Amino acid sequence: MKANVLNSALKYTAARIEQVLNRLLPDANMHPVRLHQAMRYATLGAGKRVRPFLVYGAGTMLGADNALLDAPAAAVELIHAYSLVHDDLPAMDDDDLRRGRPTCHRAFDEATAILVGDALQTLAFEALATAPGLDAETRLAMLTTLAQASGSQGMVGGQALDLAAIGQSIELDTLEQMHRLKTGALINASVQLGALTAHADATTQVQLTRYACAIGLAFQVRDDILDVIADSLTIGKTQGKDAIDDKPTYVSLLGLDAALAFSTELRDEAIAALDGLPKPELLQQLAHYIVAREA
Predict the structure, then answer these.
(1) Dihedral over Cα of 273, 275, 279, 281: its sign
(2) Looking at the whole model, is its pTM more than 0.85?
(3) pLDDT: is 226 or 4 the higher one?
(4) At 98, phi and psi to the nearest 5?
(5) Residue 65: CB partners within 8 Å, gap ≥ 6?
(6) What is the pLDDT of residues 134-147, one digit of tens each?
(7) Alpha helices in the chain, H assignment, sequence order
(8) Alpha helices by DSSP H, 88-201
(9) Burial 208-218 (b: 16+ CB within 10 A, else e)
């Protein structure tokens, strides 16, 4: 029953954010046509939409209306989509598959893919800056939260550390720091955007940060596990790419069994962080989903 409730909520979120993103993105026939087609290709029609789900989940748990959560949910997904487009480029991870289809630079070209990432990033901040129904103080806090999570002390910094670690022997705490920035920072921003929409108090924001840090790291550990145990068709990207690229992962440092155990510990830590919050069930179920997902 719990799995069915979560699946229904994930489907609802995915459908809702698809509509919001479709409205925000330029029409495919608008000049410059190739760029706008590529932006829509990179953003629409695929993906787990975990980050928007976290915005909606945290926000509605604390009493915010979905209509107010649409813009922050779209903003965080636009940042995520831009990061994937750039992450897949030859100068970065050089991937051919993303979400079960050719990566943006393969479907279009490298120059267009770079511009797609640039445009999606700016559109994310425009969506927040022009979001209806948000007061100026909340809007500013959201812009700051998303900017910090996306920059050199967040996602981009984590990607820089990731590139520097290729072919290197690193310690476990270095790997953790890298992924808390590369993956975890935007996941934490997602729950914080939901909390800001609901005008959550400081104590609640701290609890949600603990939750987000745990599931953010768990998400990456599970990705590392899937890179070893899943096939390309299931995960929608090239299986075994981390080993091919000689990238340090939780599996390579801990071994498969220990990585699985670590993901379970992180799940339990995330669930415990929500104690005392109103109606935390969906976010708790998401923690279970993250460590059990097959793609």
Answers:
(1) positive
(2) yes
(3) 226
(4) -150, 125
(5) none
(6) 999 999 999 999 99
(7) 2-24, 33-43, 50-61, 66-87, 104-107, 110-129, 136-150, 155-165, 172-182, 184-197, 202-229, 232-235, 241-244, 250-254, 256-273, 281-292
(8) 104-107, 110-129, 136-150, 155-165, 172-182, 184-197
(9) bebbbbbbbbb
CA 160 from centre of chain:
17
Q: Are 155 and 190 in contact (CB under 8 A)?
A: no
Q: Which range, of 7-11, 160-164, 229-233, averages the lowest pLDDT?
A: 229-233
- pLDDT tens for residues 215-245? 999 999 999 999 888 775 655 556 667 777 7
Section 149-164 average pLDDT: 96
Cα(258)–Cα(35) distance, rounded to whole angstroms?
A: 44
Q: Are 161 and 197 in contact (CB under 8 A)?
A: no
CA–CA gap between residue 121 and residue 116 (Å, rounded): 9
Q: Return the pLDDT at 225.
A: 94
Domains of the chain, by residue range, sit at 2-292
Which CATH architecture describes the domain 2-292? Answer: Orthogonal Bundle (1.10)
Please give the Cα distance from 180 to 174 (Å, whole number).
10
How many CB atoms sit inside 10 A of residue 32's CB?
Answer: 12
Per-residue pLDDT, averaged over 113-135, amounts to: 97
Measure the CA–CA gap between 73 and 54, rounded to whole angstroms.
Answer: 8
